[in-house]
Amino acid sequence: MKRILAAFLCGLIFGVGLIVSQMSNPAKVLNFLDLARIPSGHWDPSLAFVMIGAIPVAAIGFALGRRRKAPLLADAFDPPTATRIDAPLVTGAAIFGIGWGLVGFCPGPALTAVGFGSGEAVIFVAAMIAGMLLFQAWTAFSGKKG
To answer: I need a surface site. Which of 24, 31, 70, 118 has the fewest CB within 10 A?
Structure first.
């Protein structure tokens, strides 16, 4: 039960952060990603400050985590096993970036925007789930792992 409550609280804090920073507003994100707006003075750099502010918070979390022998709510750490940059990683990153640049949503902010009843976010999340199901079916059919 502690793990579920901790996950809920972390998700809630993350969602509030997305709302406060306006990362769940696709127009705000697109105005940040559109670097062609810099010469006209209509580029919005504010999300860069959000990212810059997140770096020290994450660094502190990682530093504190490295000092621990185990997580607070698990028996052991479960670090990723993949360490190389490969074609599926690059392809996934490209698809993520292209999607983010086209519609201004990525998964976390889209789920937050669904909570506000955003029709665009509902369509994005439905397409995201369809893509995940399609990928799962493809990997099961081909026998390949992503």
So the answer is: 70
Neighbours of 22 (CB within 10 A): 18
- How many C-beta atoms surround the C-beta of residue 29 within 10 A? 21
The sign of the dihedral angle between the CA atoms of 18, 20, 24, 26 is negative
Q: What is the pLDDT of residues 94-130, one digit of tens each?
A: 989 998 889 999 899 999 999 888 999 999 999 999 9
The residues spanned by each domain of the chain are 2-142
Tokens of 124: 């994005």
Considering the entire predicted model, what is its pTM? 0.76
Picking from 127, 7, 22, 128, the residue whose alpha carbon sits closest to that of residue 73 is: 7
